[in-house]
Amino acid sequence: MPSDFGTDPEAGRWNCRPDHPVRLNPLFQWPLDVKAVWDWYRGAWLGITSLTLTFGIAALVYVSFLPPLVQMATFQPGWMVTIWLLNLVPQTIVAGGLHYWLYLRKGQGRITKFDKRDLTRKNGTFTFSNQVWDNIWWTLGSAITVATVYQWIIYWAMANGWAPTVTFAGNPVWFVIWMALIPMWSGLHFYWVHRLEHSPRLYQHVHAVHHRNVNVGPWSGVSNHWYENLLYFSTYFVHLVMASHPLHLLFHAYFQQISPVLSHCGFEKLVKDDKEVARSGDFFHQLHHRYFECNYGTSEIPFDKWFGTFHNGSAKMRS
């Protein structure tokens, strides 16, 4: 870590930022540091993080609410509305709950908040001239609709035997491995789709809706144009070719839909009574919203490092 990281010129542009340069998954560094890899994945899976939160929601929904596949063999309003609600309700609870705690109640003030500014109101750039209402509309109206339609198709294909399926009892090794690989697949897909969306025409007419949010909040996570959501959620179609279980799709869906709520919440950590409760915001992606032409992917797979678009949070724009 550079000795001057905390005091370099970039530090003054933020209310708060991590006390070290942005870190990337050590799994892709050579020589391999086994302890660093263990610490990375332990931090991701053994605490309250976007991974564990979304997996927990997926497990709860699968056990308690998801209709059996046999009911999804034909398109019927009952199960289709259920899938829509299983997307809408958790998204609203998580995004709405974080917005209430961080921005309405201001439960932790500006502690761990990246950007010095508050969310925007009375700004004609946003739908309804309000950043939060704009983000809610594009999240619940656009994102959840597209995600739900894609999931209808995949569940229907699974139920009819037109998509390969797996059970834990039948193949426990693949069941667990595929569950662990889903976030990596999501990151791989996101990088290339995101780079495409930054092409001039798509950016101007489509991706600019998301980038209205220079200063992001919980509802900004999947606040995307309809066309962007058609691309963004196409990551789900991997389950048409990879042997999957409905729980795999549920986890993938909540990871894709809800983890951006945390990564865009604008706060590095959630704090209660001066104690860290959970990891939340993603400074890696926060930098993308400020500088646009960097950090297109995620820290899970270092595409940005490999292709020269990585910003590590220091005054030096590329590292």
Identify the quaternary structure here.
single chain
Number of domains: 1
Are there runs of 5+ residues with pLDDT below 50, and where?
none
| Number of helical elements | 10
Instruction: Give the overall form.
Output: globular
Biggest sheet details? 2 strands, antiparallel
Name the average pLDDT. 94
Distance between the termini: 13 Å
Instruction: Report strand %.
Output: under 5%
Number of DSSP E strands: 2
What is the SS-derived class?
A: mainly alpha
Describe the strand arrangement of the main beta sheet, using strand numbers.
1-2
What Rg, in angstroms, do the CA atoms define?
Answer: 20 Å
Order of helices and strands: HHHHHHHHEEHH
What portion of residues is helical? 40-55%
Structural summary, described in words:
By secondary structure, the chain is an all-alpha fold. The protein contains ten helices and two strands. The chain has one domain (44-294). The chain has a two-stranded antiparallel sheet with strand order 1-2. Helix 3 packs antiparallel against helix 4. The longest helix is centred in the middle third of the chain and has 29 residues, at 131-159. The mean pLDDT is 94.
